[in-house]
Every structure is written in structure tokens, then in C-alpha cells.
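INTERNAL AUDIT FORM
Audit reference: QA-55
Scope: verify that the stored structure record matches its stored sequence.
Auditor: D.O.
Record contents follow.
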Amino acid sequence: MKEDELIKSVEDRIIAIEERNKRVEGDKAWGTCTLKKVLIIVFTYIFAVLYLKIADTTNPWLGAVVPCVGFFLSTQSINVIKKWWIKNYHK
């Protein structure tokens, strides 16, 4: 009976590891997907417009573009910086 219990325990652990791996793969995929970046840009724009309207600035619709462009540019350059950092500092 002990051998059967050991096999069952190992099978349960393998199933748990496979489920965890699926979750991790999903998190990694979400972290790099375009939809996430687009949603952050859209939400940033909406909140910036609301803030600029409340602050009663001139042309909040145009002013809200600035943080969105900043976010977009940062997402485009982050991979270059990451590769450089890994090459030079993460050894």
C-alpha cells in the first residue's frame, strides 16, 4: 500500500506543478501582450482627461495625449533596456 500512496502523492504533485506552470505562463503572456499595453494607454488617457478637466486646463483632450505617448514610448524601449541590463548586470 505504501508504494501506491507514494505514486499517488507524486502524481498529485505533478498535477499541481503543471497547474502552476499554466498560471505562470498565462501571467507571463499577459505581461507582454499588446492588449494590456493598449488598455493602459486608454485608461491613462481617460484619467488624464478627467484630471485635466477637473483642473480646468486649456485643451485637456490634447494634454492627455502626453502621458499616453510617454507610456507607449517607454514600453517600446523597455525591452532594449532589459536586454542591456541582463547582459551587463545579471550574470
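Auditor finding: record pair retrieved intact. DSSP finds four helices and no strands in the chain.
Action required: none
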